[in-house]
Amino acid sequence: MSAYNRHDLGLLLLRLGTGGVLAAHGAQKLLGWFGGHGIEGTGQFMESVGYAPGKASATTAGLAELGGGTLLALGLATPAAGAAAAGAMAGASAVHAPNGFFNQEGGFEYAATLGLAAAGLAVTGPGRLSLDHALGHVLDRGWMVPAALGATAAVTAMVVGARNRRLDKPELDDAADQFDSQEALFGE
C-alpha cells in the first residue's frame, strides 16, 4: 500500500494549476473558447508580432499550450509536455519582453512564470498521483528530460530568432527608404 505524501499532492496541485491555465490559453487560440479569437484571429495577431506564417504559428502555439497543458495536468508524458509548454511560453515572453518584466505594463512576467513552472515539472516529474506513474513511467524516462528540453530549446531559438530577424528587417527597409529620399532631395 502506498501513501501519498505532500510532495505528491504539491506536484498534483502545481500540475493541475499550470496545466489548466496553459490548456485554457491553448483553447483560446485553437477553438476561440474563453473569449479567444480562434485560429484566424490569433493567426492575425501572430503575424502582427512577427511570427509568420500567422495561422501556422497560432496552431503550433495553441497545440503546445492546449496539448502540453492537458498532458501536464494529467501527468502524462511529463518531460515532453513541460518542454512544449515552456517553449510556447518562451515565444510569448519574446513578444512581451520589450515592455519590461511586470505583467501590468505588458511585460513577460506571466508568460515566464508559466514557462518556468512547466519546465520545472518536466524536470521534477509528475509525482505518484499521475498517469505517468500509473503507466510505469514509460513516457517519463530520465533521458527524456534533457532530450525534450534540448530539442524544444533549439526549435524555440530558431523560431524566435526568425521572428527577430523579421522584425529587424523593416528597420533596414526604413533606412534604405530614408537614404533613397535623401538621394532624391539632394540629387546625389
Automatic annotation (TrEMBL):
Topology class, membrane: Multi-pass membrane protein
Transmembrane portions of the chain: 71-95, 107-123, 143-162
Keyword Membrane attributed: yes
Organism: Streptomyces cylindrosporus
Similarity comment: family membership: Belongs to the DoxX family.
Coiled coil: none
Keywords: Cell membrane, Membrane, Transmembrane, Transmembrane helix
InterPro entries given in the database record: DoxX, DoxX-like_oxidoreductase
Annotated protein name in UniProt: DoxX family membrane protein
Protein location: Cell membrane
Source organism phylogeny: Bacteria, Bacillati, Actinomycetota, Actinomycetes, Kitasatosporales
